[in-house]
Design a protein that fits this description.
The chain is mainly beta and 198 residues long. Helices cover 14% and strands 57% of the residues. Strands 1-2-3-4-7-8-9-10 form an 8-stranded antiparallel β-barrel.
Length: 198
């Protein structure tokens, strides 16, 4: 075998080896799950908030003590596994009262989310606990306990964006030294939400 033939064979092996390494790198970058440990997302949402135990009739509760209100939500979440995430949500909400005043609240909630997926769809199921600043007229209640349950469906449009709908249930009690003033606020909400994944 002459020197020229040996050089060509060496070059072919070198190129083949480089091609195989490139294929290995590309296959390792391919992800079989939409989310991996360490992935994060920021959630923004707008919601209608429905008071459940302040009198009135479904769906707008206008003849009760509180009417349907609204809220905006901003959250940050990080995946610990491909299906389990921890995060924090901050909401800014209001409900008009029968006297045309406003009951306002700012809940800050720590969340745990389990999220199964199917094709390009994600189904987050979330439970959370936190505190809220609640105001009505010139009275402020802080810190108020907040418990939240949430379920929804999102469509992953791109690797970076998903859009979906969420249903939430909030329990916001108020406890006073004189128990006759205690209150146990129950609210449901329906949200349109977008998530930015990174």
């Amino acid at each position: 075998m002459n020197r020229f033939t040996k050089t060509i064979i060496s070059a072919v092996f070198a190129l083949s080896g480089g091609f195989l390494v490139a294929q290995e790198i590309n296959s390792s970058e391919f992800r079989t799950n939409m989310n991996e440990p360490g992935d994060q997302f920021i959630k923004i949402g707008l919601m209608g908030v429905f008071p459940l135990n302040f009198g009135g009739t479904f769906p707008l509760f206008r003849d009760g003590q509180l009417s349907t209100g609204g809220a905006g939500e901003l959250g940050y979440h990080r995946f610990l596994t491909n299906r389990f995430a921890l995060g924090i949500d901050v909401s800014f909400g209001y409900n008009p009262t029968i006297g045309e005043n406003m009951f306002t609240y700012v809940p800050i909630i720590i969340n745990a989310t389990f999220q199964p997926t199917f094709k390009n769809f994600e189904f987050p199921i979330t439970v959370g606990v936190g505190g809220a600043m609640e105001s009505y007229l010139n009275r402020t209640y802080f810190p108020g306990l907040v418990l939240k349950g949430e379920a929804g469906a999102f469509w992953r449009v791109t690797a970076s964006w998903s859009f979906g709908l969420l249903g939430e249930f909030w329990f916001m009690p108020q406890w006073y030294s004189d128990s006759k003033y205690d209150d146990y606020g129950l609210f449901s909400s329906f949200a349109i939400s977008a998530r930015y994944h990174f």
